[in-house]
Amino acid sequence: MKTQKTFCRICEAQCGLIVNTDNEKIISIEPNPDHVGSKGYTCMKGLKMGDFAHNPDRLTSPLKKIDGEFQAISWSQALSEIGEKLKAIHSEHGGEAIAAYMGNPISFSFWPTTAMTLFLKAFGANKLFTPGTQDCANKFAGGERLFGSANDQVFPDIEHTQLLIAIGSNPVISKMSFISMPHPMKKLQAIEQRGGKVYWVNPRKTESAKRLGEHIAIRPDTDIFFALGFLNELIRCGGVDQQRVANYMNGYDTLADVAQTWTADRVAQVTRIPADTLRRMVQDYIAADGAAMYFSTGVNQGRFGLLVYWIQEAINAISGNLDKRGGVLAGKGVVPRIDLPTETLTSRINDIPYVNSTIPAGIMAEEILTPGKGKVRAMFNMSGNPLLTCSGSDRLSQAFDDLELFVCLDIVRNETAAHADYILPGLHSLERADIPFYFFTMMGLMPTRSFSYTDAVIAPPGSCRDEGLILRQICNAAGVHLAGSRWLQWASNAGVWLKKIPFIGQLATMEKLFLGLLLRSAKLGGISNMRKHPDGLLLEPNQPGDYLGQRVMTPSGKIELAPADLVTRAEQTLESTFAQELANSDALKLIQKRERFSHNSWAHNVDAFVKGERNTNYLYINETDAKACGLVDGDRALARVGEHSIEVPVKVDNDMMPGTIAIPHGWGHQQASGLSIASKTDGANINRLMPSGPDSIEPASGMSHMNGVIAHISAMSN
Ligand SMILES: Nc1nc2c(c(=O)[nH]1)N[C@H]1C(S)=C(S)[C@@H](COP(=O)(O)OP(=O)(O)OC[C@H]3O[C@@H](n4cnc5c(=O)[nH]c(N)nc54)[C@H](O)[C@@H]3O)O[C@H]1N2
Ligand SMILES: Nc1nc2c(c(=O)[nH]1)N[C@H]1C(S)=C(S)[C@@H](COP(=O)(O)OP(=O)(O)OC[C@H]3O[C@@H](n4cnc5c(=O)[nH]c(N)nc54)[C@H](O)[C@@H]3O)O[C@H]1N2
Ligand code: SF4
Ligand SMILES: [Mo]
To answer: Of 272, 384, 546, 711, which sits with the fewest C-beta atoms within 10 Å of its C-beta?
Structure first.
């Protein structure tokens, strides 16, 4: 038996693990009590990783669809056929016709994601879709405007804060986003233990809100009015640090103008947070020695995620909490950042802008289906399941069938792959060497600054290959050079040969060269040095007071409190949205809900996670609303948005605020012939209901609207 330390790459917590293996098989996984970040904490999913790596449905060889059925073929056949086809599409239609969707699981692995960027560059292609426009692109778009770069983000100084206002976040289940913090509830409990306070602003009384803090129920997708009401009250109460504003910020007067009409009393009409409660929250925020406002996907997935980002970070900044102990800190990456000037790209669909070099997934179907120059004809889906995870599934399904070449790189044959021409078997995360997630390597979003390196723990089954290798072999077969660079292509080809020589092979693979280079640039001494720290390496702690006036990347060097396009949008849309909210006050609003045993769409092919009652998603609804819809617990309900509807079982749940219903995403696997366990589950795909297309996404951030969508619920007639 072999024992190896590594870290989990399922979510942003990146907990330390100890993996026991025998003959390349995972026997057991335990939490690593000595890991500098997680100190023995993990969740069930990390401990069950063996069930993903050794899944009975794991792909082991390339597959080709022949007469509607998938058949195993050799790598040489797969690569040469894909290469030929791609070459033909490229020469006839150019790079505009080639696109990729890069899903969430592989975003935790540095090398394959970089390889995808180099791959697209090789064809002069730039249409990279990611789930970023389902979970966080508003933060990137906001960072560009307020702080001068998408990669400049702030996070709450949880270890010192006296007041945390957490909006649209449920750490007990999700472990948080844009902050890497294993065992988040322990850190949050410590706030109360030192006399501080936590507020949860959420339409649902979550598992987290039941453990600690005070729950503030908010009507879904009205957070922008909450934020404006908060700002208005903060200014009214003199909670602005005028000296700091004068020294380090631009645009305060315009910002104050925007907030002027949004009093606590007025916004209460739509948020349903009583004005006195909002006033009390502002008083607590002003009084705390170090306070932080933080929001996550609950807000990102609304219609105004970018505007909320703006107002929230303006509040943190003008109150003096930005760059302050216990307030919010500006992340400092571990690897030095090279901020190359990014091109301002727009989609051919309505000139929709790219965010952080990616194109909104909400217009993927239009990019594929709209005829004319730039129509997407070849698509590479790496570690994604857009059919279940992106909005507008029915239209996407039609779009995928319209492609001339559709290639999926995955570890199993998921629902999206059913539409593919070829499926190529990639690696499970425990089969590759890695360093931590981009968010801390490059953006420093971690309260305890630390770093780790892991070698691969097990060898891949069958002929599975590293996705980076697959992409560069496709380049070879299509006769182009990775990133358009002859040298890179030569180096990566040489790596394949050198790999065959024992010892040199250990060092010479492209991914190892790449990771080693990053570690050296971070002054961490390369891979051999990092191997001496299997429990991770603590780095110099975050320092408040090192950001304002020193690291701000805007041209003025100051925080921009009133970005012109956001001010214009606020002026043009908020009054009408407010009126609309009042008019729709009786409507039921649908929100998302993450579950302990689910992970987006890919945890349902593991027996332990779909046992008993867990074998379906549910419609969660308050007792009063259920009654009004003629439903009782256990009924089946029809949920409808526009012309689309799905059927789900009902759970009456008084943790849901009246007027709010929730249905978890990632379900609806019945047709998945490649997933022997998941296909036996019940449940329906909520993204069939979510709006898609150019008019459905948030301007400038490209975010899909997935929270607060108005839905109609009725009982299914038996
Ligand atoms: N309605 C609604 N929709 C949502 C959300 C929501 O809240 N509501 N949440 C959204 C969010 S936050 C996200 S991040 C997205 C996620 O959306 P996606 O990234 O599209 O989908 P996932 O379910 O994460 O799974 C992607 C696939 O990755 C594969 N995979 C896992 N590990 C590897 C690997 O190492 N290599 C390769 N090649 N493949 C691998 C899995 O087998 C799975 O098939 O979903 C979004 N969709
Ligand atoms: N178990 C599990 N863990 C996961 C995942 C998973 O699928 N399962 N997915 C991972 C991924 S990819 C991500 S991006 C992270 C996301 O992690 P987080 O960003 O922390 O998101 P959630 O925990 O889903 O919390 C969102 C909360 O917002 C609330 N909410 C919904 N609508 C609104 C609204 O309009 N306003 C406000 N204020 N709140 C609202 C919901 O009730 C929910 O409690 O989680 C990761 N962790
Ligand atoms: S909390 Fe996240 S990183 Fe930690 S074990 Fe669970 S899935 Fe893995
Ligand atoms: Mo996500």
So the answer is: 546
Q: What is the DSSP string of 549-570?
A: TTT--STTSSEESS-HHHHHHH
Please give the single-letter amino acid code of residue 563.
Answer: P
Enter the CATH code of domain 2-53: 3.30.200.210
Cα of 335 vs centre of ligand 2, distance in Å, is 28
Choose from 199-213, 327-341, 508-522 the range with maximum mean pLDDT: 199-213
pLDDT computed for residue 130 by the predictor: 98
CA dihedral 100, 149, 538, 536 (to 10 degrees): 0
pLDDT in tens, 59-71: 999 999 999 999 9
The DSSP string of 44-98 is HHHHTHHHHHT-TT---S-EEEETTEEEE--HHHHHHHHHHHHHHHHHHH-GGGE
Pocket of ligand 1 contains residue 687 by CB under 6 Å = yes
> Ligand 1 mean position to 105 CA, how many Å?
6
Q: Which ligand is nearest to the CA of 7?
A: 3
Prediction pTM value: 0.97
CATH code reported for the domain at 72-121+365-538: 3.40.50.740
Residue 90, token pair as written in the block: 């490229």
Mean pLDDT, the chain, whole residue set: 95
What per-residue confidence (pLDDT) applies to 495?
63
- pLDDT on residue 507: 47
With CA atoms as reference, report the closest residue to 551 among 282, 139, 148: 148
The CATH architecture annotation of domain 157-331+547-565 reads 3-Layer(aba) Sandwich (3.40)
Residue range(s) in the chain whose domain bears CATH number 2.40.40.20: 587-715
Helix ranges (DSSP H) in 148-289: 171-174, 184-193, 207-211, 223-236, 242-248, 252-259, 264-271, 275-287
- Look at the block and give the residue holding tokens 């935790």: 108
